[in-house]
Amino acid sequence: MSLPVRRLAPAAALALGVVAVFAFSPFGIFPFMPLTLAALFWLAEDTRPRRAFLLGWLYGVGEFAFGVYWIYISVHLIGDAPIWLAVLMLAVLVAVMGVFSAAVLWAAAYIAPARGWRRYAVALPALWALLEWVRSWIASGFPWLAAGYSQIDSPLAGYGPLAGVFAIGWTVAVTAGLLVLILAPARALDDAVPVERRRRRVLALAALILLWTFGGWLSVVNWTHPAGAPIKVSLVQGNIPQTLKWNEAQFFRTLSRYRALTATQLGSDLVIWPETAVPDLFRYVAADYLYPIADQVVAHGGKLMLGIPAAAGGRNAYYNAIVLLGPGKPQFYYKHHLVPFGEYFPVPDWVRRWLKYMDLPYSSFAAGGANQPPLNLGKYKAAVSICYEDLFGAQIIRMLPAANFLINLSDDAWFGNSIALPQHLEISRMRALETGRFALRATNTGITAVIGPHGKVRKRLPIDRAGVLKSEVTPYAGTTPYVTAGNLPLVFALSAMLLGAIIAAAYQNRQKQKDAARPL
Length: 520
Known about the structure:
Strand order of the largest sheet: 6-5-4-3-2-13
Helix content: 40-55%
Distance between the termini: 33 Å
Largest sheet: 6 strands, mixed
Shape: elongated
Radius of gyration: 25 Å
Oligomer: single chain
Strand content: 5-15%
């Protein structure tokens, strides 16, 4: 690498991370993800581990600074926290997220420092996918902007039902590595003679074509099948501004809006309100408000599902909940995967006391069980989740294959009219694709949508507009390979690839040492 390029490499890595965000919704330029990764891999050639770490970190900083800027909106503009706290929280998150892409390049510098197939087609892709999986669960997990989501509309999406979003991320990284081998063969393959370079370049191109062609073929495979007649659903988008939602003066206007919108949907099999549609505990509004509305819905053959805070398991245990009202007793789902620093504060008690003393906003819900059953709709069942939970595919599939639908209740008003809303819809589309089922999203301000079993949006409502999305959705049964096995087969496969690369590197180093020790 020339000296000018080397000097510009840190700035280029930062810029590449920013450009990578354009691969995700709402921009949807999916080739940008493998292209920016290929450029990053090329920039990190022939660099020491410390410099490789820096380049990877800068890429991650650029990606997350641009990709999740909406956290500032949530914390300061909506949550009313001081500017310094909002900036600090965003800066810390961005810095930590950058460590994962940094670790990929740092580890590759040790495992496969030499140019060639072992580095670009094995080590770097395996490390990238494995670290994305680690990012999805460590310290509660934050899998936002995982590379696979950017490919929801590309041929690589076909790998989703097979092995999940992290498998798609692996194919993205393999694509990036193969592009380096194809487009920069004189550098990536400079250990070979010219004829060998051309042969390896052709092999890399053939592998790339095969990878994308097979993904395209998988995209048309039907892993699941219809399991009954369609049902009528009505998704209510209340469009209550987050700044007013918890205001006591707005309370009765909120109740009136949901009552009026629901009254127009009598005859639907299922009416769904969004997360915390009613800003009060269930026990305080059930008798006088919710039960009378539910009785009307039930009288016309339907059920009412809504998000609402609920108390259970003790006077001080409060949950972000979903309740299903129909004939018989109410059914509850309690949110399991809570948002750190949003729904609970993973800090010592003295920090909580300080937050209270400084009059800083904080809240603390209890977590529901990890293995709650799907909600029973009568003939069919629904795998439900609340907002942030549908980022975690391994959690969603716990309710499958018993469930026939996916239903997510969200309140993305916390993020204003930012790119967080279409990004979250993109994530919900991936869950539908992975499970081969319709996914229903009921949100407060948007994006309320009906998603088909192949991850395509069938219907949606405009953002920031009160209304009802009516549709007929078909129950599905059966399992995709991902539902059956989850992430573990991919994790084992990636680990085996890395182990093989480490063993090969150790063997190669030993052979070099032996050759060096031989007398001339």
